[in-house]
Design goal:
Fic-like fold; globular; ATP-binding
Length: 170
């Protein structure tokens, strides 16, 4: 897993001038999760119908992501947002990157490896906007130090009409 993340981060450096596409997202997920997943064919593919619930270690449902049937279009929309192709007012690159992280983690498009892939998308977004120093910040370490805060921010965002303020401030 560590080697995959290291290689993915190096690969991201070569993509700083590329636009994000669903195909690129699937390739990134494959690189991050190759030979680390329990389901052999899950690396680099979207969740399938019936794989729509996220449970914790105790078997409790903690998140019901969008149905698998919606994932292809949601990924297209996510990429358009990531690339700045949406007709919105200016969004600061850091806010856009954090939103991208949340969006991918919320959609949970993969059977496993969603968090790692979401963090990689954050790094890609920062690199593309010339915030390369962010690649030296370990988001995983930050999240590991305050997992309850991260989980609470997700839950509060979901239960408050997707108000990302909770996640942005976490």
């Amino acid at each position: 897993m560590i080697v995959n993340n290291f290689q993915a981060m190096r690969w991201l450096q070569t993509l700083r001038d590329k636009t994000l596409t669903p195909k690129l997202t699937l390739s990134l997920h494959r690189r991050i999760t190759q030979n680390t997943l329990d389901t052999g064919d899950a690396a680099g593919r979207l969740r399938r119908s019936g794989e729509d619930v996220v449970v914790d270690l105790h078997g409790e449902i903690v998140h019901r992501p969008p149905p698998a049937e919606q994932l292809e279009q949601r990924l297209v929309d996510l990429c358009a947002f990531a690339n700045g192709d949406t007709p919105a007012a200016f969004i600061h690159p850091v806010i856009r990157a954090i939103t991208l992280h949340f969006w991918l983690a919320y959609d949970h498009p993969f059977l496993d490896g969603n968090g790692r892939t979401a963090r990689a998308h954050f790094y890609w977004a920062m690199l593309c906007r010339d915030y390369g120093l962010f690649s030296f910040v370990s988001i995983s370490t930050i999240l590991r130090k305050a997992p309850a805060s991260y989980a609470r921010a997700f839950r509060e965002t979901e239960t408050d009409n997707n108000d990302l303020t909770y996640f942005l401030l976490a």
